[in-house]
Amino acid sequence: MDPMLSPAIQELGRRGVIMPAPHTVYVDDAVLPERIAPGVVLFPGTRLMGDTISIGPNSEVGSETPMTLIDCQLGHGVSVKGGYANGCVFLDGAEMGSGAHLRPGTVLEEEAGGAHSVGLKQTVLLSYVVAGSLINFCDCLMAGGTSRKNHSEVGSSYIHFNFTPHGDKATPSLIGDVPRGVLLDQPPIFLGGQGGLVGPVQIEYGVTVAAGSILRKDALEPNCLYQAAGAKDSKPRAYARGHYRSIERLVHHNLSYIGNIRALQAWYQQVRIRTMRTDSFREACRQGALTQLDAIVKERIKRLQQVTEKLPQAIESWTAALGAEASQEPVGLRFQREWVRRWPRIQEHLIAPPPDAVGEEARDRFLSAWNQLEKTSHTAAVNQLSAEAKKAATKWLTAIVQHAASLESPQ
C-alpha cells in the first residue's frame, strides 16, 4: 500500500476494501475501519464521514459519480451510485442512482431504491418501493408490493408538496401504511410521472394515480384509478396566509402518521431484531433505522407545535371575521380553541413511546409464531408467516397507530 495514502485508507486496503483509485477516496478520522466490510468497493471520489458509518458486504459506493456518505448505514449488497447521503439507512439490496440528495430521516428497506436525481428527507420507503428519476419526495412513508417485480412505484418527475402558504410543514403523507405494509403482501401503489401529492394525504393499497395529476385529496378506494382534475379557472379571491380554517384533517393525518412511525419502531425493536442482530452490518442498519425513526417522530411533533403556535392569530382573525352578530361558533373554530388548550397534554402523549400493553395480546400471539420460523433473511421470514400470524401482527401494529390518535378529538 502506498505510504503516501492516509492511515485510514491504508487500513481499509489491508482489510480487503477495494479502491480502484485510493488516492481519490477520502475517509475522515471518525470512520471505524472495522465497520467497512471486506470486499466493499469504494469508487473514485468516494467520501466517508462520521463515526456511525457502516457498509456491509458486497456493497458499492460511487460507481457512476462521486458519492458522499455521512453517518449512513448500508446493509448487504447495497449500491449507492453517486451524490450525497447524510443520516440515511439502506437495508439489504437497496439501490440509488447518481445525483441523489438524501437527508436525515431517510430509510430504504430491502430492495427499495431510486434512479437518478432523487431527493429524499424524512422519508421511509418500505421493501421493494421504487422511485424513478428527478423526484423530490420528502416527509412521506410509502409501502406496497410483494417483490421487486411487483412493487409500488413513484413515477419520474414527481413531487410531494410539503410546504404550505402558511409556512408550515405539518404535511406528512401516508402512501400505504405500516400495519399491513410490513407484511409484504399488499397490492402495489402507482404514482404516475410528472405529478405530485399536496400533503398531507393518505393513499390506499392498489391505487393508481394517473400521470400528470396533482392529488390534493385522500385516495382511499382500493384498486381504483385517480385522475385529479386541474385547477379550475376562477377569479382571484381574498387569501390570508397563516389564517387557518379547518384543521381537523391536518390533525388526523399528522397523528396517524406519527402512529405509523411508532408502529414501525416497534417492528424494528421487537421483530427485526431476530432477523438482523446476528450480523453486525444488518444490526447497524437496524439501530440506524431506529435512530432515524425517532428523529421523524420528533420532527412531526415539532411541526405540529409550529402550527399550534400560529393558531391564536388564526382564531382571532376568524372571530373578527364572524363579527358580533354570529349566532353560533363554527365547529372548526371550536376545534382550534380546544386544540390549543389541550396541546401541552397532547404533546406529552406523542413524545412518550406507546405503553408496552398497547396491543399486547395480539403482539404476543404474533411473536410466538415469528420466533418459531426458520432463521433466514427478513423478507424470506415474513413470507413464511401464516395468515393468522399476519392478522395478529396487523392488529398489534394498528393498536399502536390508534394509540397516537387517541387524544385527537377535543374533549
Q: What can be said about the biggest beta sheet?
A: 10 strands, parallel
Count of beta strands: 30
Could you tell me the CATH topology label of the largest domain: UDP N-Acetylglucosamine Acyltransferase, domain 1
Q: Estimate the mean pLDDT confidence.
A: 94
Helix count? 9
The first-level CATH class name of the largest domain? Mainly Beta
Kindly name the structural category.
Answer: alpha/beta
Q: Count structural domains.
A: 2
Say which CATH homologous superfamily of the largest domain is assigned. Answer: Hexapeptide repeat proteins
Q: Tell me the span between the first and last alpha carbons.
A: 70 Å
Helix content estimate? 25-40%
Query: Radius of gyration from the CA trace?
Result: 23 Å
Sequence stretches where pLDDT stays below 50 over 5 or more residues:
none
Strand percent estimate: 15-25%
Report the CATH architecture of the largest domain.
3 Solenoid
Q: Overall 3D geometry?
A: globular
| Lateral arrangement of strands in the main beta sheet | 2-5-8-11-14-17-22-25-28-30
Helix-strand blueprint:
Blueprint: H1 7-14, E1 26-27, E2 41-42, E3 47-49, E4 54-55, E5 60-61, E6 67-70, E7 73-74, E8 79-80, E9 83-86, E10 88-90, E11 95-96, E12 100-102, E13 106-108, E14 113-114, E15 118-121, E16 124-125, E17 130-131, E18 135-138, E19 140-142, E20 145-147, E21 150-151, E22 153-154, E23 159-161, E24 173-175, H2 178-181, E25 190-191, E26 196-198, E27 202-203, E28 208-209, E29 214-215, E30 225-226, H3 248-270, H4 272-276, H5 280-322, H6 331-351, H7 360-370, H8 378-383, H9 387-404
Parallel strand pairs: 1-3, 2-5, 3-6, 4-7, 5-8, 6-9, 7-10, 8-11, 9-12, 10-13, 11-14, 12-15, 13-16, 14-17, 15-18, 16-19, 17-22, 19-24, 22-25, 23-26, 24-27, 25-28, 26-29, 28-30
Antiparallel strand pairs: 20-21
Helix pairs in contact: 3-5, 3-9, 5-6, 7-9
